[in-house]
Amino acid sequence: RMFATYPQTKTYFPHFDLAHGSAQVKAHGKKVAGALVEAANHIDDIAGALSKLSDLHAQKLRVDPVNFKLLGQCFLVVVAIHHPSVLTPEVHASLDKFLCAVGTVLTAKYR
Amino acid sequence: MTLTQAEKAAVVTIWAKVATQADAIGAESLERLFTTYPQTKTYFPHFDLSQGSAQLRGHGSKVMNAIGEAVKNIGDIRGALAKLSELHAYILRVDPVNFKLLSHCILCSVAARYPSDFTPEVHAAWDKFLSSVSSVLTEKYR
């Protein structure tokens, strides 16, 4: 969804096959989801749990911070589609706040 | 995002100079903000926003005083600006994007007045510092 809606995000994946159903996109999505699960399992210390990922994004990946919001939004949309009754306004707000916190941690060491 | 010792030093050093013209810089920064980003005027329907207006100068002073407080307590900006943080969260509710815009205008005003002091390193330190201030002012929104 992110690559379709915000094509500029493809700039970070010149080495990927971004076609629908691509194995690389599936695998990468799994990585991202895994990191979110880690963060959720250590929800009181997201910075600690994602410390290595934070370093990786700061020193190597250098994804522009604005893109974390975009991916977060796409993630929320997918959750809404798959679990419509779960995503009440309160849950939506909490999940959004959580995704923002994750984005903040991943960009905290940029400078 | 934490400020390094060098960055804190850069902020404090420039502030010593900025403080001497704080009111003028504050008013000018707001003027830049309202001119370049007219949508920001939405938060000041009750103000006379013409150049040199007393309200602009008064508000500019308030903003610069708060920044001065943050500089003085640069090791604990959150503590120093706790009340302002609540004010913005519960009453003012300025959209967070506008803090970036005002910070940018402040940087422009400072750079214009102290061109030789505003080296790339000082610029980076000040941008990071103003980002920290902005974060503190928006962190109680939700």
Walk me through this protein's architecture:
The complex is a heterodimer of chains A (111) and B (142). Chain A has a domain at 45-110: Orthogonal Bundle (Globin-like). Chain A starts with a helix and ends with a helix. Chain A is mostly helical and 111 residues long. Chain A contains 6 helices and no strands. The radius of gyration of chain A is 14 Å and the shape is globular. In chain A, helix 5 runs antiparallel to helix 6 (89-107). Chain B is mainly alpha-helical and 142 residues long. Chain B is built from 7 helices and no strands. In chain B, helix 1 (5-18) packs across helix 7, helix 2 (22-36) crosses helix 3 (54-72) and helix 6 (97-113) packs antiparallel against helix 7 (120-138). The radius of gyration of chain B is 14 Å and the shape is globular. Chain B starts with a helix and ends with a helix. Chain A binds chain B through residues 93, 97, 108, 110-111, and chain B through 1, 124, 128, 142. Chain A: Belongs to the globin family. Chain A: Keywords: Heme, Iron, Metal-binding, Oxygen transport, Transport. Chain A: Residues 1-111 form the Globin domain. Chain A: GO terms for molecular function: haptoglobin binding; heme binding; iron ion binding; organic acid binding; oxygen binding; oxygen carrier activity; peroxidase activity.
